[in-house]
């Protein structure tokens, strides 16, 4: 009997404290000179138990390598291709070449048509966006893939004219006409609205006016929207709800908002306040904890917020300030850039190969307390069982 009880308790206890990450994806950028090959990346994602990733192209090596894995992929039509795929025949050719050969072995779940088109320096792209999306979706319909693959585009938070308080959220007037067409497309196809939201930028821009704890998800008083009376304890959720209200103002209430990029740089230039390993670790660790709870925002508490972390690797070839090259959780060689709760189980290197294996352990204080109670319960069960055995032998 004791052996059976021990085995049962061991099975129940073996994985206690390991918290799977839900509603979480990661951006797998490739603007680096020394990034690991896709098979190593797939191994890293598997060890992290991350099953959603986004790439910024349709790299055939990645699409081939990720076949028959459990990783869902969002792929991208690059901005320079929008004018081409506006033509339905060109869009069909693009989907036939870049998507059909890999699907369904590779779990492509969405096509991002462009990236931050509404705020791109090339303003002509705005006019191409919706026709390109319509043509790509039409090609998916022709090939019978529209039931499995959505079409959308990631947007910079700079599309908002107002974002504070969240209920004042509104789009800039110069994009509102095309934005209405875009929202109608999303409503017709059941696709999500993606936003690239970085509380870091708000803090960097006004460190004396923006609470660091508020942007890092740390404990803080938060803010109450004076019009809705909803309480916000972090800036990311406020930014997401500002987008929801902006859509309300254009007459769209049923479109899901997801976060296509968010993160915090671990290094920056002297004028990039807050770009430190400590802040990056806190932001991403707290964000991961929130994702484990399947939380929604104050405005939509029952809809879990899907978030894609930026980014998997530091990318040394990205232009711009130092922070742009230092958003990664990992260095290109697979070593951890900073401690975000990614516990390295093994890291080996040689002249021929290198590998890294890590798992996400983010046990909160409440989880630790529950674990201690569980351990105590197990201990006393063993004590009582031993006493019972002694009594049986005496009789």
Query: Which quaternary structure do these chains form?
Result: single chain
**Gyration radius, rounded:** 24 Å
Strand order in the largest sheet: 5-4-3-2-1-13-12-9-6
Helices and strands, in order, run as HEHEHEHHEHEEEEHEHHEEHEHEEEH
Individual helix count? 12
Which outline best applies?
globular
CATH topology: TIM Barrel
Which homologous superfamily in CATH is the superfamily?
Glycosidases
Q: What about the largest sheet?
A: 9 strands, parallel
Mean pLDDT across all amino acids: 86
- Please state roughly what percent of the residues sit in beta strands, choosing from under 5%, 5-15%, 15-25%, 25-35%, 35-45% or over 45%: 15-25%
Count the E strands.
15
Percent range of helical residues: 25-40%
What's the CATH architecture name?
Alpha-Beta Barrel
């Amino acid at each position: 009997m004791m052996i059976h009880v021990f085995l049962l308790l061991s099975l129940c206890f073996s994985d206690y404290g390991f918290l799977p990450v839900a509603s979480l994806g990661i951006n797998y950028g490739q603007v680096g000179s020394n990034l690991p090959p896709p098979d190593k990346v797939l191994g890293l994602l598997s060890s992290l138990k991350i099953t959603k990733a986004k790439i910024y192209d349709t790299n055939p090596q990645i699409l081939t390598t990720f076949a028959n894995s459990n990783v869902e992929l969002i792929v991208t039509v690059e901005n320079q291709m929008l004018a081409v795929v506006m033509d339905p025949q060109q869009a069909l050719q693009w989907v036939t070449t870049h998507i059909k050969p890999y699907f369904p072995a590779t779990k492509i779940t969405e096509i991002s048509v462009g990236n931050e088109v509404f705020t791109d320096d090339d303003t002509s792209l705005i006019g191409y966006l919706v026709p390109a999306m319509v043509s790509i979706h039409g090609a998916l319909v022709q090939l019978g893939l529209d039931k499995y693959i959505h079409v959308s585009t990631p947007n910079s938070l700079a599309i908002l004219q107002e974002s504070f308080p969240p209920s004042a959220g509104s789009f800039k007037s110069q994009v509102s006409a095309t934005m209405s067409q875009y929202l109608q497309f999303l409503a017709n196809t059941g696709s999500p609205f993606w936003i690239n939201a970085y509380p870091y930028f708000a803090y960097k821009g006004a460190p004396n006016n923006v609470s660091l704890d508020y942007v890092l998800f740390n404990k803080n008083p938060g803010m109450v929207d004076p019009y809705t009376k909803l309480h916000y304890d972090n800036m990311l959720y406020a930014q997401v709800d500002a987008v929801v209200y902006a859509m309300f103002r254009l007459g769209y209430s049923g479109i899901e908002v997801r976060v296509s990029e968010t993160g915090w740089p671990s290094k920056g230039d002297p004028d990039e306040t807050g770009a430190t390993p400590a802040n990056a670790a806190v932001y991403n660790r707290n964000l991961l904890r929130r994702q484990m709870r399947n939380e929604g925002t104050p405005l939509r508490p029952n809809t879990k917020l899907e978030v894609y972390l930026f980014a998997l690797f530091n990318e040394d070839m990205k232009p711009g300030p130092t922070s742009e090259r230092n958003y990664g959780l990992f260095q290109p060689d697979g070593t951890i850039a900073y401690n975000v709760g990614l516990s390295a189980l093994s890291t080996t290197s040689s002249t021929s190969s290198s590998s890294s294996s890590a798992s996400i352990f983010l046990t909160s204080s409440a989880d630790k307390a529950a674990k201690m109670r569980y351990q105590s319960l197990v201990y006393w069960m063993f004590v009582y069982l031993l006493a019972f055995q002694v009594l049986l032998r005496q009789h």
